[in-house]
Amino acid sequence: MGHTSTSRVQSYIGDPVSDAPAVDRDMLEEVFQDIQADIRYDHELNGCLNCGICTATCPAAHYYDFSPREIVQLLWTENLEGIYDAMQEKIWACAQCYTCAARCPFGNSPGGLIMLMREAAIKHGMQSAKDVLRPFSRVMLKLISTGNQLAPDMINPDHFADWGPNISKIDAPLKLLRKAVPVPTMHTTETAWQVNLKTSVELYTIWEMTGVLDQLETIDENLFDVICDIMDEKREDWDDWMDEQEDEDE
């Protein structure tokens, strides 16, 4: 008596209740292959008993239409339509606390898998990634152009009215207070600390060589152009400084 061969991989079924046009099959496969090809994928996905422990302990699942178990099942069964659909909204609900990874009896990491899906969403310029990252454009500009994520002058009463009376504390003379800090590199309000020109250029080069800026261009072309202009100026300043050092040595 022969045995029927089975597969966990779901066939292409489409979405029978959606009026939206079907996403091209080649696109679905390309997105999944980008996720699956990441070296972390096989470490984060080992199988699934569908026990639901990850969802039961997930903080985000209590407040959003989100389930770590669903994410694992979609990837485990290679449900390409479901994966693509989850990347339009659901994956952005994850808080990356990795409680799911700590509790999973199979050693899966739904949070890690979601990180791969988020990176793929950015790479493919999905609208969901653009919408989520747009509010952080000011922080990204600060980070890539200065090496700092935040700065004292980014906090002001107009932007943090929900702080109530506590917001009055930032009305203090920040520049004067920062100059009193023992560490000289923190005598600034434009950045959390001063990053020297060489370090700034090196950071930019790392982001450039690792593809971070290419991904940023797919999400926010205007921000990409601004950052490139800033770093071109810094590279010119660094080259001029190096030339001056050579002239002094001669």
Describe this structure in words.
It is a single chain. With 250 residues, this protein is mainly alpha-helical. The chain has 2 domains: 100 residues, Alpha-helical ferredoxin (Fumarate Reductase Iron-sulfur Protein, Chain B, domain 2, Orthogonal Bundle); 116 residues, no CATH class. It has 13 helices and no strands. The longest helix has 29 residues. The mean pLDDT is 87.
Task: Kindly list the characteristics that best describe this protein.
250 residues; mainly alpha; single chain; Fumarate Reductase Iron-sulfur Protein, Chain B, domain 2; 2 domains
Brief characterization of the structure:
The chain has 13 helices and no strands.
Could you say which overall geometry the principal axes of the C-alpha atoms support? globular
* Mean pLDDT figure: 87
CA-CA gap between termini: 89 Å
Tell me the number of strands. Answer: 0
Which structural class best describes the helix and strand composition?
mainly alpha
Fraction of residues in H or I helices: 40-55%
- Determine the number of helices (DSSP H or I, runs of at least 4 residues): 13
How many separate domains make up the residues?
2
Q: What order do the helices and strands follow?
A: HHHHHHHHHHHHH
Enumerate the spans where pLDDT stays under 50 for 5 or more consecutive residues: none
**Proportion of strand residues:** under 5%
The biggest beta sheet is recorded as: none
- Alpha-carbon Rg, integer: 24 Å
